[in-house]
Design a protein that fits this description.
Helices cover 29% and strands 34% of the residues. It is α+β, with helices and mostly antiparallel strands. Helix 1 packs across helix 2. The longest helix is centred in the N-terminal third of the chain and has 15 residues. 21% of the residues are buried.
């Protein structure tokens, strides 16, 4: 099973983005995910990790929920 962590900047008000990504991942992969964790951070962070590997970092990538879901897909079981 796959663990996804979404770390977001609280002072920047990125909670809505974190919730959007979390909801999209759960809709797409549902029971194929072991956990989707929303983790608080600061300093402008918005990073998504799948099984500990960074699949999205706002400092390097444009925010796109669909692209983040696609980036997580290889970490999810073959049934997803």
């Amino acid at each position: 099973m796959t663990r996804v962590e979404i770390e977001y900047c609280v002072p920047c008000g990125m909670l809505n983005r974190a919730q959007d990504v979390s909801a999209a991942l759960l809709r797409q992969f549902g029971d194929d995910l072991d956990e989707v964790a929303v983790v608080t951070g600061d300093d402008g962070v918005f990073v998504v990790r799948a099984d500990g590997e960074v699949v999205f970092d706002k400092t390097e990538d444009d925010y796109d929920v669909d692209a983040i879901v696609r980036a997580v897909r290889p970490y999810v079981g073959a049934t997803a």
